[in-house]
Amino acid sequence: MTLALILLYVFAQVLLAAWAGRGAKSDADYLVAGRSLGPFAVAMSLFATWFASESLIATSSEVANDGLAGARTEPFAYALGILAIALFFAHRLRSGGYITIADFLRARFGPGTELLAAGVIALSATTWSAAQLYAFATIIAAASPFDFPVALAGATLLVLTYTLFGGLAGDVVTDIVQGVIMIAAMLVLAFLMFDAHGGIAPAIASVRAEAWSFSLPDESWTAWAELWLIPIAGTMVSQEALARTLAARSPEVARRGALAGAGIYLCVGLIPVSFGLFGPSLAPVLGVELGADEAFLPSLASALFPSWLYIIFTGALLSAILSSVDSALLAVSAVATESGYRRIDPDASPRTMLRAARGATVIAGVVAALVAASGESLRDLVLDAGAIAAVLAVPIIMGLAGRGLGTRAGLAAIVVQVAVLGVLDWMLGIEGAFLWMIASGLAVFAGATWAERRALRVVRAEAGRKRQRGGNEAPMTGVKRGYERARKRPKRP
Predict the structure, then answer these.
(1) pTM (2 decimals)?
(2) 280 and 307 fall within a common domain
(3) Following DSSP, what letter does each residue of 302-319 receive, concatenated?
């Protein structure tokens, strides 16, 4: 029964996405919805895209274990990242008419930086897609006799069908529907939770005192800083999030929509936090044993919901997954098409670019499924995606803020940051690797900019000296040339 309802729900989303994306005739229609979004669509799509499966499952379990310290990443840090998009990025980037953030980096730092940034965006978005496919396959496996690999293959096929038909226009329309379903389902679960407690006041009184702390005992300052900075930096330069502002119908709409999206994300994100704070004390009241880690919220919902209403919780999870995974696949498709295929065939027609974008979506989905099959935890996949995307923060921020920047600074910063993150984090597992990565990126960017400006001053000075020498010789040269012409002119008889 549950599996049939899941399939029915996904099929309805596919039909809705196909209807919304039926008018796509070019890559711009497919990737930025023809730049036609209003502020409400931008806000709801930003919220629904960023409020993914881990926003429900991982956040509630981390708050249940660690108190408010488990809520630093979500909703607070991610909400700050969306707010940064609204304040510093949305208006400027939308004014440039870009399709991807790699387009902006090409305009500021040249094609080499664009290609490297496109690779970073593709890797980050593929990892994010893998996290959502992992969660989707887990739900299908739990509701059916299929094992995880078969469920993952089915989930990937469903998501690809849904994304291919709709593009960003279909994504935005379904984001709005899915966002409403998520909010409604969480409000119902929150009402039942507080009702089981006997009201809000008894629920608050049931929380242990140490759960209200925003820090963990014996937590180092580097770990604390990384927990805040990775999601903030990863969000504000994310192609998935920025695509919504790039699709707005004007720069001001992009800014207003992103501001509203940050507010919605923070307010709705506090609901899973309440599950983690007030849910654990219900175990003895309900006479049940709540699951640990990522099983906490499903077990709480199962204990509170009647069996026929449990599908509401499943619908909330599916909405969170579907509203995020298609956005990530479209991000990969965008950079692969605009920064890759367009270089191979710069004269390609809009229809050809549209086919290339859809082909890139299929490839991204298959690769994401392979990553999801590796078995890494949901939160680890999400943090990996954020850390990868954050290597673009330095060149993007400096590109927006600086003037007279050379072409090599952005490229050098990305290369060094990828190397530092790869060695210190992925190879050695050193705490604070992300902070070292950002520091190295800033240092290299500053050094490369200084070196380029110094070289430019030297070239200009040398050119000035040559012009000065040429100016002193020019009159003599002109006199000599005139004398030679007069000497060779035939005399009058």
Answers:
(1) 0.86
(2) yes
(3) HHHS-GGGHHHHHHHHHH
